[in-house]
Amino acid sequence: MTALLQVSELDVRHGLLQAVRQVSFELAEGETLALVGANGAGKSTLLRAIAGAHRPAAGRLVFEGRDITAMPAHRRVKAGIALVPEGRRLFPNLSVEENLRVASASGRGGRWSVDEVFEAFPLIAPLRRKRAASLSGGEQQATAIGRALMTNPRLLLLDEVSLGLAPVVVEAVYDSISHLIEAGTTIVLVEQDLTRAMRVADRVACMLEGRIVLEGARGELTREQVTEAYFGLRRQAAPA
Amino acid sequence: MTWIADIVHGILLGGFYALLASGLALMFGVMRIINLAHGSLALLGAYMAFLLTEHLHISTYLALAPVLPGALVAGYVLQRTMLERSLRAGELVPLLTTFGLLIVIANLLQQFFSPDVHSLDAGRIGPASWHISSDLSIPWFDVLTLAVAFTVLGGLQLVLRFTQLGRELRATAEDAETAELVGVNARAVYARATAIAVAIAALAGVFYGMRSGFDPNAGANELLYAFEAVVIGGIGSLWGTLAGGIVLGVSQEVGAQINQEYFALGGHIVFLAVLVARSASSAPRIRYAFRRFA
Fold first, then answer.
1. B177 touches A: beta carbon within 8 Å
2. What order of strands is seen across the sheet that includes strand A203-208?
3. Which residues 108-167 on chain A approach chain B with CB closer than 8 angstroms?
4. B171: which chain A residues are within 8 Å (Cβ-Cβ)?
5. CA distance B4 to chain A (A)
6. Domain that holds residue A175
7. pLDDT tens-place string over residues B97-140
8. What average pLDDT does the segment B88-101 reach?
9. Confidence class for position A79, pLDDT limits 50, 70, 90
10. How far is A22 from chain B (nearest CA, A)?
11. Do B181 and A51 touch (CB under 8 A)?
């Protein structure tokens, strides 16, 4: 079986800072990969590079067998990649419904429509005419995920969807993500909460200083192994 | 009675300012691009219509048929070749680029058409008017201008509110990167919006040419009034631009009633008053300063 997404030897820079170094991995259709790691490890940058918001300095991205390394972001959306960005990034002066409708620009057909999104996220259904800026954090997050779904993605990239949300709301957001996973959506998610990441994902990859330092299926990795990789303990312990 | 006549004429003049300002309101208010060449692009439209009426002997209104599509194309090309690059260099760079464009257009027009004053024929409705009383007569052409301004601004408002292009445009203006991430081709959306803005500028220019004579340097003056209309009406609000144009027109007519020389001054004073009032109500710190001096 060919992979849905192949990332090979990807380098991404922010000016002089190299945020992602020589990252390679493959993702099969229907798989859920959790990216974990400390702040500044390069997780968000990696997601943004896959979505097309950030051009890689070197390396290759192949999606559905097609090289998308030089493809602009809006065409990647058309190809089936959607990112839920860190911090939601809704259009503040557009209504909830308008935020969703903007995302139909890609013209990808599929099961998701405005009504479908409101059905899946009943939380925001009564708010459809409200300005996005007036929503609470959880409502904004639901809208942001709904907006990404409106493009009917084959690959959904979720960047820190639980950041800044109340625990009850995080629970609700992850509930809806579980539904997406069950429906067979391929997902890469960045998550600070290790326990949660290891619960929903099939595979966990841990990043440290721009590299993937540990990767494995959920069953193969212990929490201790991931924690060690997370803080880079093993490497620091090596010279001793 | 003369006061009523002034106000009526001011409203009608305001319709012209609103028409002139509507393309600017779209670019400045919605897309956040300050287009200093707006008046010059309007003038370019007037000169193109002049060429067509001179050589093909068609009416000015018929000349709009080729001028408007031409302006659409010119706007699209302008965005893709110049404004897009300038925007990438920062928000203020388009200010320089369009200032340069203003000078280039004025000089090219001078080269090709001489510095003489030209004018466009407004047809049969040009000199016609309703005589309400001895003081008050309403020119048909001014009513037509107001109606066109109303239609253009209303149409723009509807496009922004209810069409996919409008939603994509507003989304791109708020956050271009995120718009791209949800599938919007931000560059194409901006190019289409600039095309519309330049076409509206050309339309306003042709109306300008029919109401008064124009020379190659008229663009900058008209630009000033258009800017005042946008600012008085509130940036980002298209209906506000119509109101702003009317407020400006009435202020000028009332100023002229007090003293013939106060025509432009009346508008400038109201413009400044609106600016001061707005900054005082929006910025608490300034309001605090005001209170301390009061």
1. yes
2. A81-84, A155-159, A186-190, A32-37, A203-208, A211-217
3. 108, 147-148, 150-151
4. 91, 94, 98-99, 102
5. 40
6. 5-237
7. 999 999 999 999 999 998 899 988 888 787 888 888 877 888 89
8. 90
9. very high
10. 24
11. yes
Q: CB-based contact (8 Å) between B26 and chain A? A: no
* Residue B106 falls inside a structural domain: yes
Q: Does B211 touch chain A (CB under 8 A)?
A: no
Q: Do the domain assignments include residue B130?
A: no
Quote the percentage of chain A above a pLDDT of 70. 97
User: Nearest residue of A to residue B182 by CA position?
Assistant: A103
Query: B1 falls in which pLDDT band (50, 70, 90)?
Result: low
Q: Which residues pair with A25 in a beta bridge?
A: A7
Residues 55-94 of A with CB under 8 A from B: 72-74, 77-78, 82-83, 85, 89, 91-94
Token pair for A217: 């299926």
| CB contacts, 8 Å: B168 with chain A | 102, 105
| Domain housing B160 | 2-124+136-293
ipTM of the complex: 0.89
Instruction: Record the tokens describing residue B159, joined without a space.
Output: 């496009």
Contact: A91, B164; criterion CB under 8 Å: no
Burial (0-12, 13-18, 19+ Cβ within 10 Å), B55: exposed
Is B62 a domain residue? yes
Kindly state whether residue B131 falls inside one of the protein's structural domains: no
Domain count, chain A: 1
Closest by CA to B93, choosing from B39, B10, B175, B34, is B34
Which CATH number fits the domain that encloses residue B85? 1.10.3470
Residue A47 backbone dihedrals phi, psi, to 5 degrees? -60, -45
Lowest-confidence region among B51-55, B242-246, B279-283, B288-292: B288-292
DSSP-assigned letters across all residues of A36-50: EE-TTSSHHHHHHHH
Q: How many CB atoms lie within 10 A of CB B161?
A: 12
CATH of the domain at A49: 3.40.50.300
Please give the structure tokens belonging to residue A231.
């803080």
- Output phi, psi for B236, to 5 deg: 95, -10
Task: Mark yes or no for CB contact B181/A98 under 8 Å.
Answer: no
- The Cα B15–Cα B13 span in angstroms is 5
- Domains contained in chain B, number: 1
Q: Does B281 touch chain A (CB under 8 A)?
A: no
CB A92 to CB B181 under 8 A?
A: no
H or E, element range at A162: none
Give how far B161 is from chain A: nearest CA, Å: 9
